[in-house]
Amino acid sequence: MTATDISSLKDLISDFLTAEEPAHQTSIEALTLEKGHLHLILRTTAKGAAFLQDAQTTLEDRLRQHPAVSSLTLSLTAHRPAGPAPRKAGAESGHRPLALGKRPTGRSAPPEACLPDVRAVIAVASGKGGVGKSTTAVNLACSLARLDLRTGLLDADIYGPSLPHMLGETQKPVVENGRLRPLERWGMETMSIGYLVDKEQAMIWRGPMVMGALTQLMSDVSWGALDVLVVDLPPGTGDAQLTLTRKLSDKLKAGGAVIVSTPQDIALLDARRGVTLFEKTETPVLGLIENMSYFCCPHCQERTDLFGHGGARKEAEALNIPFLGEIPLLRDIRCSADEGTPLVLRDPDHPASQAYKAIARTLKDRLFPSSC
């Protein structure tokens, strides 16, 4: 990458934008070129976004003709001119930051069906970060796939996507007819914002853009026919979780939410808030998992309850929700995640693998009793 390459790319983009009246108020918000991959974010108006959705392929083709560009990622971020406040923010106001699909035109445009060929969604959630939610989601999804369920796995954490690393996936998804095709990995259909951006790329997006990206990862991805889609929710109980539970309302009622917590009191307080969120959105809570339940020394096998023990079981009893099981805090779980092979696949007979698989069987029995 040279300054000349950057300058010529900017000139190419500017020429394209100034040639079309709807794109006149569009500007380059970010442009990076690393090892031949161009990452471009355009800041535009609602009118410009509608035009660029249709003109995206033409612009991308011109950019690929540049000798320094071998691949690219194009994202749009929209701003509104001063005036009356919009009716709604986020995905529902038309933000489509992944530059996929087409904006509906006219007020009478029918809403897009969300995951029409997915039988049920399992949302894996936690009230706070750092409790091992993503590791749990990945191993549960792999376990469900090994129970002969057609399984998908969606990494819905826009700011901190970990799925590509945990699955050892380095490929980029392709776009077909304006929709992303999921990457097949370990017998599952998988998707993550991490597949679309460089792993060092910081997603500096405000709330509406995050909501739009989350919606697109569901509606603008060709998930196909699945028995279950496991959604690794971002931690917390904010806008992202509300957007996903509302968008997936029907599918979640056919599935439900799994809450992951450590045994310590502070984590359980946040887990309780997560349960409250799902209850308010009429989402079934399938149960609570106690992760990092205990630690076994790899040398002497002595067990130590680093974060206490049994807190999640007691909390589940107090909240009158199922307790799904305990997952220990083990080096093997961490190593398998770092190496890109989930533990249930790397060592199916490992005690922790057996715990994941037992939870998956419980979920299958609950959601698909006729297939058991």
TrEMBL record:
Q: PROSITE patterns this protein is in?
A: MRP
- Is Nucleotide-binding one of the keywords UniProt gives this record? yes
Annotated residues that bind ATP are located at: 127-134
Sorted alphabetically, the Gene Ontology BP terms of this entry are: iron-sulfur cluster assembly
Q: Which InterPro entries match?
A: Mrp-like_CS, Mrp/NBP35_ATP-bd, NUBPL-like, P-loop_NTPase, YlxH/NBP35
Query: Which Gene3D superfamilies does UniProt cross-reference here?
Result: P-loop containing nucleotide triphosphate hydrolases (3.40.50.300)
Q: What Pfam families does UniProt report for this protein, alphabetically?
A: ParA
- Amino acid composition bias (Low complexity), ranges on this chain: 78-88
**Keyword annotations from UniProtKB, A to Z:** ATP-binding, Hydrolase, Iron, Iron-sulfur, Metal-binding, Nucleotide-binding
Q: Which GO terms label this protein's molecular function in UniProt?
A: 4 iron, 4 sulfur cluster binding; ATP binding; ATP hydrolysis activity; ATP-dependent FeS chaperone activity; metal ion binding
Give the span(s) annotated as Disordered.
78-112
Q: Which family does it belong to?
A: Belongs to the Mrp/NBP35 ATP-binding proteins family.
* Subunit field text: Homodimer.
Described function:
Binds and transfers iron-sulfur (Fe-S) clusters to target apoproteins. Can hydrolyze ATP.
HAMAP family, A to Z: Mrp_NBP35
Q: What is this protein called?
A: Iron-sulfur cluster carrier protein
Question: What organism is recorded for this protein?
Answer: Parasaccharibacter apium
